[in-house]
């Protein structure tokens, strides 16, 4: 069997949803079919990925790369490019899979520079939200990012895996490449048992925080950073508390906006609880009555899929990614980005008219299981093209 294994090189930035995706991919790929090496950037590695490294080492060779950094830095980028080329020449992978924009450019360029004798037969790319989708990148920067993505897709990519149909639509709107070069592969999470509501609340220690056992809890498990817009979440909760003074907001996650979020919550401090990063975030989500996500933009947020798995209805901003997880009326409600008033209305509606747990879970099982994600990516690694049925399903998405 060893001789038939396909050598796969994964190149990535190790943080957030991108990091989680690769951890699940590496641990889930069949070791009888794939020989995996992971080259990962260390500059923004988060706690989740750092703690996953020992287990990942049992499934793949791990190569840290200090020069895969987010800021534009020619010196770092040149060193990273050389490092990737060196790994390609030594490992001679049949498949190269790049994750995130920076790794996507460097990894694909390295394959081109190594030439046709490198052994690489297929190059895949998962952007996890294109850089040009971010609101902070406009004007000339956006034009440059679009141009880079277009050139790389047309000259150095076998297939792009988009984590949402909205992300794929953004690629097609910018004419990055032909529709056949993109396939939607939703982030999946394992269908494992989750704690009961009471068990999850005990894990969070809500009694010790002064949250009554019967109090409605609105929760979020996301980084407190600009993309997730936690200040709007605080604004939503201020309006919720005006009508439901028994309600509480639990924020699981850390980030550079935590001080600003705490300041914004000063007027309702008894109702807002900052619990920081927790490695069990995907389990404690079961403690919530409503999951709240106020993102400015997304690729395909794992946190929402975890909420569905736990049977927790969602109030989320109507943006790319979120709008493919949330089906209004079936598992939650969408509201406009930055609109705290509409967000509060969405949360209050879900508290007053709860959606049955099993109905919410059904939407997870239909589209967002880890097995589904692994089966699709494994088939592409082995050269199996998307079938007509899979293309039809993408169009429905």
Give me a quick take on this structure.
This protein is α/β, with parallel strands linked by helices.
Radius of gyration: 21 Å
Kindly identify the CATH topology of the largest domain.
Answer: Rossmann fold
SSE order: EHEHEHEHEHEHEHEHEHEHEHEHEHHHH
Total strands: 13
- On the 0 to 100 scale, the average pLDDT is 92
Total tally of structural domains: 2
Helical stretch tally: 16
Strand-pairing-aware structural class: alpha/beta
Shape: globular
CATH class of the largest domain: Alpha Beta
Low-pLDDT parts are 392-397
Distance between the termini: 37 Å
Please identify, by name, the CATH architecture of the largest domain: 3-Layer(aba) Sandwich
Please describe what this structure looks like:
InterPro entries: Glyco_trans_4-like_N (IPR028098). The protein has 16 helices and 13 strands. With 397 residues, it is α/β, with parallel strands linked by helices. α3 packs across α4 (101-114) and α4 packs across α5 (139-156). The strands form two sheets. Strands 3-2-1-4-5-6-7 form a seven-stranded parallel sheet, with helices on both faces. It has a six-stranded parallel sheet with strand order 10-9-8-11-12-13, sandwiched between helices. It folds into two domains: 2-188 and 369-396, Rossmann fold (3-Layer(aba) Sandwich); 197-367, Glycogen Phosphorylase B (Rossmann fold), CATH 3.40.50. The longest helix has 18 residues, at 74-91.
